[in-house]
Known about the structure:
It is built from 6 helices and 4 strands, in the order ββαββααααα. By secondary structure, it is of the alpha+beta class. The strands form 2 sheets. The protein has a two-stranded antiparallel ribbon with strand order 1-2. Strands 3-4 form a two-stranded antiparallel ribbon. Strand 1 and strand 2 form a beta hairpin. The protein is globular and about 50 Å long. The model has no long low-confidence stretch (mean pLDDT 90).
Amino acid sequence: MKLKINGQDQSFVFGVKFLRKLDAYRGAEQEIQGVKVKLGMGLTMMFPQLMTKDAAALADVLYCAAKSSIKLDTIDDYIDNCKDLDSLFNRVMNEIKASNAAKPIAKNLKA
Length: 111
């Protein structure tokens, strides 16, 4: 998926790297006998937020899917100034649902 942000084309890929980054960035953690253990499940936790049109969740998902380095503040500003936010949510959701890596998670969430 491509978006023009600040006059530059930015690519976003919702594959395995995206899932790993999202797991690390927004995944679940649990403390077991005093040790924090990362459980992953980033997309599982974020997908319902995308379905309810949570703009902060959208920014985090785009940040984790960015193919090149882009600041989260830049993505926040893009979303804040987006003229058709519903369309952006739909594009991101459709890209996730079409991704080989993310499709099973989205399907299991009945998206």
